[in-house]
Amino acid sequence: MKAEKTGSVESLLTEKRIFSPSSEFAEKALLKSRQQYEEMWRRSIEKPDEFWAEMAEKHIDWFKKWDAVEEYSFKDDVFVRYFRGAKLNASYNCLDRHLNNWRRNKAALIWQGEPAEESRTYTYLQLHREVCKFASVLKSLGVKKGDRVTVYMPMIPELVITLLACARIGAIHSVVFGGFSSEALRDRIIDSQAETLVTANFGLRAGKTLNCKENADEALSNCPAVKNCIVVRRIDRDCNMMPGRDYWWHELMSAATPACEPEQMDAEDPLFILYTSGSTGKPKGVMHTTGGYMVYATTTFKYIFDYRDEDVFWCTADIGWVTGHSYIVYGPLSAGATSLMFEGVPNYPQPDRFWEVVEKYRVNIFYTAPTAIRAMMRDGDRWPLGRDLSSLRLLGTVGEPINPEAWMWYYKVVGKERCPVVDTWWQTETGGILISPLPGCIPTKPGSATVPFFGVNPKIIRQDGSEAAPNEGGYLVIDKPWPGIMRGVYGDPNRFKNTYFVQYPGYYFTGDGARRDEDGYFWLMGRVDDVINVSGHRLGTAEVESSLVAHPKVAEAAVVGFPHEIKGEGIYAYVTVKEGVEATEELKKELIAHVRKEIGPIASPDKIQFSSALPKTRSGKIIRRILRKIAAGEIGELGDTTTLADPAVVESLVAGRLEAV
Ligand code: WTA
Question: Which residues in this protein are found as N6-acetyllysine (predicted)?
Fold first, then answer.
């Protein structure tokens, strides 16, 4: 293991440490050298048809092959099409094809419930049977190819079964995160014109019960088009059931036939819709299709997680987000992997819950979010140190920029400097990972997502559209499609082009800021609306945050711009201190001096506000919109706060603003 550290500065701008995979890891890896990666990447860009045809042959089973591989336009009439004329079925790829070989009796899905004593394992054969039965149930209720099915469920195996059953009969699933409100659910049901809802009576979260069915009922009272609502009995407690509309899952399943042939889907038939928030307006129904998505999810899964047949793979995301779609369900199951699914949260009943699960199932590959890593880091090293984590061989992160401090903690305390860390950058819109190290051959740098995946050609451009120089921050855009890219916004044909292709015609606009260093590594700096311009200098809020979090007394920090008379924008930092640390005026000065020293005077915060918590979505993303408003003093116009995990946080932030210096 090679580790170099030059200088003591921990900020992204000056991060120089680099870690190569151990020779033991590299020798067994799918790709073993940077040169091998470079050759494959170049071929994927220069000869995309040849490259993706090869991946499609190798990783996916087809009922009928394609007439053309890649066809697209990123200008004028924007469209993307892969594998024209080909036929396949996603559930066939995730299940049936594994039944002809030894994987038949391999664990496909291991489910760990929130209560420690509740767990279930499905082999590929068993999962196939359940999926076929539920597909028959859906058919018997009149659900047909192309119909939309909304799914509003906690993290239970029936959720995976539902998705694959929809895919089997060609119905389009639309998962709404189980933590969303009834209003959010209603809007998404109406937008997708679904006539079927699958839910559960209750859910469990950190020892509390969630009233899933009650929320569903409230939503459905405004959705007259919904004809059927299927309810899983997650806990043994009754809930309201409307005769003629509501059915118990177990009752329908007990009478269902396990014979259900997979529908032959066109490569460009939609597989699912997933709603995601943009910077403005109502959530977009991001639509993914079957062929390209399956090829991309499977290929990225195999290469980036370097999956081997004996591994247990655990992605901690909720299936309500794209990460769960691609890396709990479609990628792993299509690859014949053992995918672990967890119902609980990282810190309940105590802060080592994740590590207990890793120990129990001997997890080999672990994929989580920086926000979870920082929270666990705050709880202290004794929790991971108290568990046997020796089964781990690869660690991954996703969802937001990871600050080098958290990366190093993950690498050292969790991975014992033995496991490569893959920082994977992607979006709901991209279907799968676009920028990430390949763990056997790309040395990692803490805080960098490193290099593009095959077929992906990202560029950093300036405001005027010209290409940025090495290390110069700019907009991250992508100059050609890859098979997993979204195909449109459901029900709104113009919105795809208008959201992603009007800023710089010819490029897919990611909405993220980034820079590329002299080694060709990408450093993500947050959404471009989070890039602040201080006295004409562009700064990533992530950079200032990284620097703050690198201070030994800081647990978490969020930085936003606010209007500043002289500088244009000033820097406003919200800081959560570590347990046992006193939040004093002295400490504010110390932090300002610290950031000045680490990044430079340009980055020193103008105001620091201590807060015990930050406003986050239920998926753990900090809602900067609210922080910006509070920083700007626009506290009468905070907008919609219903998507917050804990709305009370906002009140305490507003109160605390007066004390910010
Ligand atoms: C951010 C999640 C830095 C980014 C898969 C992106 C990241 C948005 C990373 C998409 C990463 C995701 N480093 N930033 N490794 N991964 N992001 O749609 O701003 O929920 O645009 O998809 O998350 O979030 P989404």
Answer: 621
Write the ipTM. Answer: 1.00
* pLDDT of 636 above 80: no
Dump pLDDT digits (tens) for 422-453.
Answer: 999 999 999 999 999 999 999 999 999 999 99
Cβ-in-10-Å burial (0-12, 13-18, 19+) of 305 comes to buried
Compute the distance between CA of residue 626 and CA of residue 614 in angstroms, rounded to an integer.
Answer: 10
- What CATH number is associated with residue 634? 3.30.300.30
Residue 625 is assigned to a structural domain of this protein: yes
Q: Is 386 helix (H, G, I), strand (E, B) or coil?
A: coil
User: What is the per-residue pLDDT for 277?
Assistant: 67
Query: How many A from CA of 429 to the centre of ligand 1?
Result: 10
Q: Which amino acid is at 619?
A: S
pLDDT confidence tier of residue 531, bands split at 50, 70 and 90: low
- DSSP secondary structure of 242-287: -TTTEEEHHHHHHT--S--PPP-EETTSEEEEEEE--SSSSPEEEE
Strands (DSSP E) contained in 361-507 are: 365-368, 394-398, 421-424, 458-461, 474-478, 488-489
* Number of structural domains in the chain: 1
Helix or strand (DSSP H, E) at 19? strand 18-19
Ligand 1: nearest atom to the Cα of 526 = 19
CB distance 399 to ligand 1 below 6 Å: yes
Index of the ligand 1 atom closest to the CA of residue 510: 21
The residue assigned the tokens 């590594």 is 521
Q: Which residue segment(s) compose the domain that 614 sits in?
A: 535-656
**Which residue numbers belong to the known binding site for CoA?**
205-208, 323, 347, 535, 596
Question: Does a structural domain hold residue 528?
Answer: no
pLDDT at 279: 47
**Ligand 1 contact, 323 CB (< 6 A):** yes
CB environment 573-603: b (16+ within 10 A), e (fewer)? bbbbbeeeeebeeebbeebbebbeebbeebb
Binding annotation for Mg(2+): 549, 551, 554
| pLDDT tens column, 208-248 | 999 999 999 999 999 999 999 999 999 999 999 999 999 99
| Residue pLDDT, tens place only, 449-460 | 999 999 999 999
Separation of alpha carbons 342 and 413, rounded Å: 22
CA distance 212 to 221: 14
298-311 per-position pLDDT tens digit: 999 999 999 999 99
Q: Whose CA is nearest to atom 24 of ligand 1?
A: 427
The CA distances from residue 284 to 198, 366, 428, in Å, are: 21, 30, 10
Integer-rounded Cα radius of gyration of the chain: 24
Q: What is the rounded average pLDDT for all residues in the chain?
A: 92
In a domain, 621, yes or no: yes
User: Per-residue pLDDT tens for 483-525?
Assistant: 999 999 999 999 999 989 999 999 999 988 999 999 999 999 8
- Is 487 within a domain? no
